[in-house]
Design brief:
The complex is a heterodimer of chains A (322) and B (210). Chain A is mainly alpha-helical and 322 residues long. In chain A, 75% of the residues lie in helices and 0% in strands. In chain A, helix 3 packs across helix 5, helix 8 runs parallel beside helix 11 and helix 11 packs parallel to helix 13. Chain A is globular. Chain B contains 6 helices and 10 strands, in the order E-E-E-H-E-E-H-E-H-H-H-E-H-E-E-E. The longest helix of chain B has 16 residues. The two termini of chain B are 14 Å apart. The chains are: A mainly alpha (322), B alpha/beta (210). The interface between A and B is medium-sized, with 20 and 24 residues.
């Protein structure tokens, strides 16, 4: 947006009560998420040392937390300053004053929670076992690891991927596009999963390194990787199924699902190569544009899937690879 | 010195530690027990890290009533210490020293005693398990604690540091400080003259000696 548009939007926010409440709500929601993140982070063993912040006097602790808070809320504070400036210029004073009282209130609440968190003992780290699935199959381990240690990553990736894919389906249904448009959407959605597959490669190499020692057949490895991957991309596969649910489109849904699974497997394979100190970063970026071009030139999806599957198979073929 | 009453800590797995009453005078106290017997759980509760049912008082100060004052009198070294990877040991020491009120002379003395030296400039992410243990130990001696809890202090550190640590513990005892030490090593009982030896098994604590 241009500066003029920002000014117009700020004036609208100050004039309209609902917009103004929306800004306050955004501030509060961000503040809650940020505070929850900070407090949860302190529960981790490696950050438990900061429990001794409790020994500081209240003014010193206030200074420390204010410094952290202003940095983590910098963008919102800058916008609050901007709104105040526009308010002063437009002679709307009540709302900027209310805004700064609200900001002060959010910080006070944040500090009170932080202060009492430091006074109390930290919770024990207990992972309870599911009653329905007391034994977690190997293929589910990665998902369990993500759910335990990277919940934000799951939420962020799934949210962005599904919103984007839904947008592609929405424009496809409005007409004027063919299936290549959906294929391009699936390609984008697959690359949104990039950080998840990076985490999987790290998890396999570091936390599952013990299993390298065990005799595991090539087909067993394929099955386990496929289980982990399909479990994670299941929401997108369901979305494809819902959008092409009629019998006439059954084959298309199958074709697109196979295409999406293959691209994700290929991406996983490329990240494995990259982790082995081969500079495949450019190759990964290149793969995106190459796949985009082959989609554009109407190459059948099953043919596009072949090199992706080859990259995956080559990557996990080695006995030194999970 | 330390009083524990109606202590109970239970987990959803069914594991439970119960101590009806325990009084410990000053000196060095050894807690023995098998792996997973609950030694670390008990020590973390005494250090004020994790919550529990019941009460613990140190020199008349109850952890439930005055948690911050209580915790300031207790220093703790974990069996497997973990710290933020992005810090180096000097930064970590500076932070803990500011919270516990340790001066530069004490830091320098402890660094020499534990053989840490220039390695403290390196980020903690690069530390071996032995160096991480030394990092945890130096933090446990900072300030002026009344009780120092050392969970498996002699595992993973080299023989020379073990000797230095023993001398350091004895010098602190001479200054009137008390220690709670755990170990499952067989020859550990001969290392110090303990005021008491306690054994934890099946979630129950019993006095073997003292």
């Amino acid at each position: 947006m241009e500066f003029k548009q920002h000014v117009l939007l700020a004036e609208r926010v100050l004039e309209n009560d609902k917009f103004f409440l929306g800004v306050l709500g955004a501030f509060l929601i961000f503040g809650i998420f940020q505070e929850r993140y900070q407090l949860n982070l302190m529960n981790e063993s490696r950050y438990r040392i900061f429990h001794s912040l409790a020994f500081f006097s209240v003014p010193k602790l206030l200074k420390i937390q204010l410094s952290i808070w202003t940095k983590t809320h910098a963008l919102l504070l800058i916008y609050a300053v901007f709104l105040s400036y526009i308010g002063l210029r437009s002679q709307i004073l009540l709302k900027p004053i209310l805004l700064w009282f609200f900001v002060l209130g959010v910080f006070s609440l944040d500090f009170i929670l932080f202060y009492f968190k430091l006074r109390r003992p930290f919770p024990d780290r207990v992972i309870s076992k599911s009653v329905l699935f007391p034994r977690i199959p190997f293929g589910f381990w990665f998902l369990k690891h993500l759910a335990t240690n990277r919940p934000i990553l799951i939420i962020a990736v799934k949210l962005v991927s599904l919103i984007l894919l839904n947008g592609f389906f929405f424009s496809y249904e409005s007409g004027g596009y063919d299936l290549r448009w959906i294929a391009f959407g699936l390609l984008c959605a697959a690359f949104i999963h990039f950080p998840v597959w990076m985490e999987k490669v790290r998890f396999d190499a570091e936390e599952l390194s013990y299993f390298l020692n065990l005799p595991r057949s090539f087909f067993l490895k394929i099955r386990q990787h496929l289980t982990s991957l399909i479990l994670f991309i299941l929401p997108e596969l369901i979305l494809i199924g819902i959008k092409f649910k009629t019998q006439d489109f059954g084959l298309i849904a199958l074709n697109l699902s196979f295409f999406f699974v293959s691209i994700n497997l290929g991406l996983l394979g490329l990240i494995v190569f990259q982790s082995q100190h081969i500079d495949w970063t450019k190759a990964i970026m290149g793969a995106f544009f190459l796949l985009f071009l082959v989609i554009l030139f109407s190459i059948p999806f099953y043919l596009i899937a072949v090199p992706s599957l080859a990259a995956f198979i080559l990557a996990i073929k080695s006995p030194y690879q999970i | 010195m330390l009083e524990i009453s109606q202590f109970k800590k239970s987990y959803s797995t069914g594991f439970e530690i119960k101590i009806d009453s325990l009084q410990l005078q000053g000196g060095i106290h050894l807690i023995k027990g098998e792996n997973g017997s609950g030694k670390s759980t008990l020590l973390k509760a005494i250090a004020g890290i994790h919550d529990f049912e019941g009460d613990i008082t140190l020199e008349g100060i109850a952890i439930k009533k005055d948690p911050v004052r209580f915790r300031k009198m207790v220093n703790y070294s974990d069996a497997e210490p973990m710290f933020p990877d992005f810090l180096n040991l000097n930064e970590l020491i500076a932070f803990v020293a500011s919270t516990k009120g340790a001066d530069a002379a004490q830091i320098s003395h402890l660094k020499t005693e534990l053989g840490i030296g220039d390695y403290a400039k390196n980020p903690l992410a690069s530390y071996s398990s032995g160096m991480l243990k030394k990092a945890g130990l130096i933090l446990a001696f900072l300030g002026n604690p009344q009780l120092i809890i050392l969970d498996e202090p002699f595992t993973t550190i080299d023989v020379e540091t073990q000797d230095r640590l023993k001398k350091l513990v004895l010098s602190h005892v001479a200054e009137g400080k008390s220690f709670l030490i755990t170990s499952h090593l067989a020859d550990f009982e001969k290392l110090f003259e303990y005021s008491s030896i306690l054994e934890i098994a099946d979630g129950k604590l019993s006095k073997v000696y003292g």
